[in-house]
Amino acid sequence: MKKWTLQVRLTVVVGVILLSVCLLLTANSLLAADTYYGNYASLIESGQVELDPAWIEADRIDPAAVSPGEFYREASHRFSIQSLIVMALLVVLSVGCTYWTAGRILRPLRKLTESVREVDDMHLDHRVATEGAKGEVLALTESFNGMLDRLESSFSIQKRFAANAAHELKTPLAVIKSSLQVLEMSPQPQEEDYQEFMADTGESLERIIQTVEGLLSLANLEAAPVGETVELRTLLDQAVRELSGRAEECGVMLAVSGQAQPIRGNASLLYRAVFNLIENAIKYNRPGGRVIVTMEQSEENVCIQIEDTGIGIEADALPHIFEPFYRSDPSRSQQISGSGLGLSVAKLIVERHGGKIEVTSKMETGSVFRVMLKQ
Ligand code: ADP
């Protein structure tokens, strides 16, 4: 029965039920007939009851050829045979109808199965048509299409991730290679040549290390413990102190205010998240600009807001800035250093703490990043 199709299984189950019910009903009616009319034969034979002429006509048995009692027994035998034949015919007809109807009902499911077979990682854009589907099949088709949407988007994010990671590592490696070639080609390299080579190589290696560290922290975040008590204000002060030199270099004013109750989390991870956000607010700013870090406490949440008066983020870029390796055009074209991993790491850290991160931005005016953490 395991290999039978659903259509056949349904038909067999309905057939067995029908057969049992019909057999019971027929047996019951035959027994009832015998109970109520069984003694007619002897009554007719003893002459107490006359044969009904309507029976004689209906049964087409010559009453002159047989005794009235035999006539009655022959008629009741024929009645039993006819009942059984009609019952068998009805069962066969009903089983046929069940098979046909089950086939029609299951047709959308078969179509769905065929469409599902056509989907593989090369055809994730394939969608199952919902025309003609109703009820549960429609719900199943829609859920399946929804799952394909999610799969397609995570496949394309993965592909982009791999391509970007390769690109991010390839660029500094190419710089090291070409510096080495330049050094090899010069017949008698001078000390300045070596110094230039070392400076270029050092910079490129630093970029490779940054990228690898970012990738490692993305991979390790899931398992990081988040059970210690964290004083958020201390953490913000620390990050602001560490970045104050950088802010000064860029001519950006940096300020922090607000208080909040301690939360449960991982201090070094949260430090990393706020550090990345404040560092970005300085990096993507302008001389004379400001970065204001504020913290507010509500009943259930702590909100840390990092507001800058920097270059802003294009509306098209906003949905992507938290993707690993994503860098918007202005940051690339203005050659602001970065690996494109800062925000994705910050987002993962905040989510690991059960919080969320939001951003609003206006080009040439500035951006506001809000981190909401549970108390
Ligand atoms: P990185 O800064 O290393 O490029 P991030 O993941 O930190 O990578 O940021 C991703 C992109 O988001 C940046 O390249 C930049 O284009 C944009 N971005 C992030 N923060 C800001 C900000 N405060 N102002 C303007 N653009 C920003």
UniProtKB/TrEMBL annotation:
Enzyme Commission designation: 2.7.13.3
SMART domains assigned: HAMP, HATPase_c, HisKA
Q: Can you tell me where the transmembrane regions are?
A: 79-102
Q: Which Gene3D superfamilies match?
A: 1.10.287.130, 6.10.340.10, Histidine kinase-like ATPase, C-terminal domain
The answer to whether the entry has keyword Transferase is yes
Q: GO: which molecular function terms? A: phosphorelay sensor kinase activity
Keywords (alphabetical) are: Kinase, Membrane, Phosphoprotein, Transferase, Transmembrane, Transmembrane helix, Two-component regulatory system
Per the record's keyword annotation, is Zinc included, yes or no?
Answer: no
- The organism's superkingdom is given as Bacteria
**CDD domains, alphabetized:** HAMP (cd06225), HATPase (cd00075), HisKA (cd00082)
Please identify the protein, giving its name as recorded: histidine kinase
UniProt lineage = Bacteria, Bacillati, Bacillota, Clostridia, Lachnospirales
